[in-house]
Amino acid sequence: AEGAEASPPQAAQPAAPAAPAPAAAGDAAPNEPLIAPNTVGAQLLSGLSGRIGGITDHVLAAVQSMADLPALWEAASQLARDPVAQTRMLDAAWKVLLLVGLGLVAERLVMRAFGRFRHWLDVAAPREHESWTWLKRLPLVLLRLLLDLLPIAAFGLTVYGLFGLVKPLPTTKLVGLMIAHVYMGSRAAFALARALLSPASSHLRLIPCSQEAAAASIGWLRRLMLVGVGGYVLAETGLFLGLPWAAYDAIINVTLLVGSLLLVRLVLQQREAVASALRAKPLEPGEVPDRTRLMLRGFRNRLAETWHVMVILWLVAGWAVWALALENGFQRLLWGTVLTLLIIGAAKALDEGFIRVSERLLDPTHDLAKRWPGLPARAATYVPPLRAAVSVLIGAAATVLLLETWGLGALAWFSAGTLGNRLVQTLFNIACTLMLALVVWEVTNSSIQRRLARLARDSHAARSARVRTLLPMLRTVLGVFILVFVVLNALSQLGLNVAPLLAGAGVVGLAIGFGSQTLVKDVITGVFLLLEDAVAVGDVVNVGGKGGVVEHLSIRSIKLRDGDGSIHIVPFSTVTTVTNSTRDFAFAMVDILVAYETDTDRAGATIKEIVAEMRSEARFKTAIRDEFDFWGVDSLGQVGVQLRGRVRTEPTQRWPVQRELMRRVKRRFYEMGINIPHQALAPLERSARPPEDEEDESTPKAPAKKAEAKAAE
Mechanosensitive ion channel MscS domain location, by residue (predicted)? Predict the structure, then answer.
């Protein structure tokens, strides 16, 4: 240990000449560290490094205390060099072996003497499977146990009686008595186990189990007793013969380790058998358990899957308590186990309670859903991550309490000025920032949803659909902004330097702004036009000198379909004025020219009658909103009088109403004899043939003249 303590200064001496190196680089500006000092991130890294080093030291100390091999080697060397110790050891060896051997012979003789009687007990045992069979077996089992204890008593009487004959040394006598006591105690315990399990005769078995299980239990008990008794006898004998206490502890620790490993092997071997007994039985067809029963079934299934892990951990912890010689170790181990079960149960109950509360929020038939109709839909978005966060929080709190229960002082990690305290404050600040961001998001989203609902109530389906196309884009922009804000705040809280990130984002934003000015103008203008609800799909508009029906709206341009089928794509940056002909309502204008001798009042009344007839028809009942508004005489022309009026219609029904109205007015005026002045066109009389006809008649004559000339030749 002294050499280990002196090694760090020696290792540090060669590195001393490298000290001037930082001074030589003093002219250069030092790089700013990625993690600022005295922050949560720096303390977290340094604390984690220190904890790993401490755990490593404890593990090395435990391994060293497990088996002190140098102490054993030193004790063996001293026994080999000490004549007195050798004489004492040889005297003890042959005398103890003689006593134990004669005791075993006596035990064997007594066992053979009562063998027939033991066989008679097996035959006399009741074989009927009746309710009182166990009571009949008990006297026979006690008699069988007595027969098994008589050979052990013979062993003890033989050993005690021969002590006066061999006259052992005091040390030899102590060793012999210790071996005799340990042997008789282990044999008596083994006889009791055989009486309860009776692996050779199932008729005398008090514990209900199969033949294989009884035989396996006796086999494992024999192995464990062999290891335990052998290690204890070896350690005690060595101690009586002058073995150091360090070597004694090493032998006991190794013995307990081997026994623990055998128990671990037994647990793993019986893992499936115990799990099948702990696991909940399958449900009947059509059976639906309630929430409490379902939770208990889940607990049993989880226990069946993990019982072996808990038992193995408890065995390892028990051996570590003994090997490290902890003060009140087993008492603390038992108390810690009880508190662990209570903490885990409380944590599970809290988690289950929060799950039930969250299910009420998601239940559309609950009273909360009736009071706030939109609550289940909104809660469905946040309940799953909130469940995960609450589960993590409960798990972290339970972990801290478990560490405190097992003596690791976890609560002291969160005292004022410690790393845990700063970490909790940092996480709290990040959680508050996240909650504020979620509130902003929900308020904005709720405002958009109310606007959509208002549009739907006003029967503005097209505009509502258009706003819904805009909603994902607005959500994305807002979500990206909130996400960037939360991430930068979290990194700043953790001690990371976010200045380079902000500078880089500013440079990128400046480059994008200069390179896409027109695009940015298109987007901004389009956003404002969409938000002001100036244009919607299906409207008839005139923008940028182009008119038509709006077929599609994007964030950058508007797509128009002209009357002849032409497509016009107009960027929003070129739009200075929007003329919408189909917003809210429209007017079908009526301008009719009548002769001067026409009664204008009668003509206006006729047009009103026609409009009334159209409103009574199913085709125009919803298209025409009001009666005909007759304005009167608009002007006096050269050939007649100009009458004007209008009819209020639906936004997109102005042209069909106007066309049908003009058709019926023309027919009704013709029937009533109301003259509509027009300029008559006189037909043209054909005084001569058109030049085209003369050309057509002269064209075929040319080949005939050529044919006549050729024939003359």
Answer: 518-583
